[in-house]
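Per your request, structure below.
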């Protein structure tokens, strides 16, 4: 039976490949595929962004090798960055909850 972390990694891989390769090269996300992935899988994050160029900026930041597509390794950096931000919010909420209980 896989652990929670193993299941999370498998889910991350499966989600990436659900969107990757429909256009462009197999195993990469085009700008449109990245937009679809984010609209469907990260809709809360996307809705909180006020800048209509968010996807373009994210695509530019992720595309480390400049080939116009995002491979899995480049995609993982987005997930890591968002996870770090979410963990910081989690810690802040935890601190606020603990201070209310004192």
């Amino acid at each position: 039976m896989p652990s929670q972390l193993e299941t999370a990694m498998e889910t991350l891989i499966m989600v990436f490949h659900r969107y990757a390769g429909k256009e462009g090269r197999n195993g990469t996300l085009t700008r449109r595929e990245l937009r679809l992935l984010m609209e469907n899988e990260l809709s809360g994050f996307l809705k909180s962004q006020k800048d209509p160029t968010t996807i373009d900026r994210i695509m530019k930041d992720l595309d480390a090798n400049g080939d116009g597509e995002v491979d899995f390794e480049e995609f993982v950096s987005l997930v890591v960055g968002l996870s770090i931000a979410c963990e910081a919010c989690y810690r802040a909420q935890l601190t606020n909850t603990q201070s209310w209980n004192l």
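DSSP finds five helices and two strands in the chain.

Regards,
D.
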